[in-house]
Amino acid sequence: AIAIAVLLLAAVPLLLSQGLVNAAIQMLIAALFASAYNVLCGQAGMLSFGHAAYFGIGAFATVHAMNAVGGAGLLPTPLLPLAGGVGGLLLGAVAGWFATQRTGTYFAMITLAIAELLHALAPHLKGWFGGEAGVSAMRMPSLGLDFGSTVHVYYLTLTWVLACLALLFFFTLTPTGRLALGLRENGHRLAFLGYDVHRLSVLVFAISAMFSGIAGGLQVVSNEAANYVVLDAHLSAAVVLNTYIGGVKVFLGPALGAALMTFFGYAVSDLTQSW
Question: What crossing angle do the helices spanning 197-223 and 175-192 adopt, rounded to 10°?
Answer without folding.
Answer: 140
